[in-house]
Structure prediction request, 183 residues.
Amino acid sequence: MSGIDAKQAAAALSDIDATVQRVRQSRIYELTSLILMQWGTLILVGYLVSYLWPRSAGWVWIAVNIVGVAGTFAIGTWARRRSGVRFDARIPLALLLFLAFGYLNCYLGHFGARELGVFWPIYFMTVYSIAGLWFGRAFVVIGVGIIALTLIGYFYVGAWFDLWMAFVNGGGLILGGLWMRRD
Prediction:
């Protein structure tokens, strides 16, 4: 009867651990991709409506955020039921606190419409990029890419900024979500 030695057992356990890590990252990417595509669609619509009806932009963005937070919670609940992925209820609470802190900064900073259009994507994508240091390179690439394109738009796009941001921020999140689904 032939057994395995300690070295072979360690290698087998290492292979199992690597597989578990890949499955975990795959589940995180699957859940995150749905959330990204949801937010991307909402943001794309928000910027388009802001471009077409600038006087309603403040209310539009409040609605986008409310629907986005509710949608994030719904996606998390659905994912938990479907696949057993644990979606911690603290996540929507953290998102609400994050939004409140952002609104406070906007209030104290007295930002104009264009500055608000730059602040929010950079604010979110910075945290998103930092999360990528733990959850995978796709987060970093998406976050840094959207930040860079947002700054390019701020400095060089002029009156077309809202349309630029609809496709850079909204479209970038949608494309990022699609990319994460295949990764």
